[in-house]
Specification:
This protein has a single domain, classed as Rossmann fold (3-Layer(aba) Sandwich), CATH 3.40.50.300. It is globular, with a radius of gyration of 19 Å. Helix 4 packs across helix 6. The chain is built from 10 helices and 12 strands. It has 302 residues and is α/β, with parallel strands linked by helices. Helix content is 30%, strand content 24%. Strands 8-9-10-5-11-12 form a 6-stranded mixed β-sheet, sandwiched between helices. A 4-stranded antiparallel β-sheet has the order 4-3-6-7, with helices on one face. The longest helix is centred in the middle third of the chain and has 14 residues. The structure holds adenosine-5'-triphosphate and magnesium ion. Magnesium ion (MG) binds next to helix 1.
Length: 302
């Protein structure tokens, strides 16, 4: 039996005159159901349109005017020098940016045509559709490996029944390329795993709530080369079913694993980060349109 989880984004309030993606006003608690197979070319499921997004910390403009298309069911890499706003933009995508006191974002980020930034959209529901994996693996140390996989559902009060939970845990751990290594110790603490295994556990936890998008902020930077290759292989594999956006400082990694690369930069320290250019990874790495992109990729700055 397959455990079911919500596949919709719930809106909470409707400001007067606010338009829904369909152009109609939304009633309180109305549900915006993301189309399972929206019209469009194959692979369009889980595609995102970022339009005129700017992110602030208080009065500090950290990211300015980003517009970017992120293809569905593909890997998009964010690259650029430290401080150009890659993590900030990533957090804006699943509305974790606004959790930071004084932080706010402007613009729109549509997932399959639904504006995730709209005031009436519940940020908790957004985070179900757009999961996140961090630089440092962060399993819950007091929870077993099994409960770590189920943590997103447990937190939402949606713990599946025993047999469905077992099936879901096995499926997610297999999907995260971890099942064979942990199937005999599911009750052990998540902390008992190696760093690379913990990161794969965090990926299993992220996909257990059936997101459309998985965001990863430098997921390999704390890992050894073998674990890094395992996560890279996993990211490629995940892109068959999820839209993957990964921040990386590793140019070879961006070139190996991504379909699309977006290069961000900033004029100088304290200035806002901006998107310099984006395109198919092969083109960005072999024939970038902007000299600054080539300089960065070739290691001449940043
Ligand atoms: N919590 C915060 N409060 C205030 N300013 C912040 C916060 N987080 C980031 N910033 C600022 O926003 C800008 C962008 O930071 P961000 O962390 O997004 O850059 P980044 O491209 O991810 O850098 P790195 O490659 O070093 O991780 C920087 O000027 C940074 O100092
Ligand atoms: Mg960062």
């Amino acid at each position: 039996m397959t455990a079911t989880v919500p596949t919709s984004i719930t809106t909470t309030t409707t400001p007067a005159g606010a338009a829904s993606p369909a152009g109609a006003a939304l009633a309180a608690s109305e549900t915006l159901t993301l189309a399972a197979e929206p019209p469009g070319p194959p692979g369009a499921v889980g595609s995102m349109s970022i339009t005129d997004v700017s992110c602030y910390y208080g009065s500090h403009l950290a990211v300015a005017d980003v517009s970017l298309e992120i293809p569905g069911r593909a890997v998009t890499a964010f690259i650029g020098p430290s401080g150009c706003g890659k993590s900030t933009l990533l957090r804006a995508i699943n509305r974790m940016h606004e959790v930071i006191p004084g932080a706010r974002a402007e613009g729109s980020i549509e997932l399959d045509g639904v504006d995730l930034c709209a005031k009436e959209v519940d940020p908790v529901a957004v985070r179900s559709k757009v999961g996140m994996v961090f630089q440092k693996p962060n399993p819950f140390p007091a929870m077993s490996i099994k409960d770590n996989v189920l943590a997103g559902l447990i937190i939402r009060g949606q713990r599946p029944r025993a047999s469905a939970a077992d099936e879901l845990v096995e499926r997610c751990l297999e999907r995260a390329h971890l099942w064979d290594e942990v199937k005999d110790r599911l009750k052990k603490s998540g902390d008992s795993l190696s760093g690379g295994q913990q990161q794969r556990l965090c990926i299993a936890r992220a996909i257990a709530v059936q997101p459309d998008v998985v965001l990863m902020d430098e997921p390999c930077s704390a890992l050894d080369p073998i674990s890094t290759l395992a996560i890279e292989e996993l990211m490629r594999d995940l892109a068959r079913d999820y839209t993957v956006v990964v921040v990386t400082h590793n140019m070879a990694q961006a070139n190996r694993i991504s379909d699309v690369t977006a290069f961000f930069s900033l004029a100088s320290a304290g200035q806002p980060g901006r998107l310099v250019e984006s395109g198919p990874t092969g083109q960005i790495f072999s024939a970038p349109k902007v000299a600054a992109t080539r300089d960065y990729i070739e290691g001449r700055f940043g």
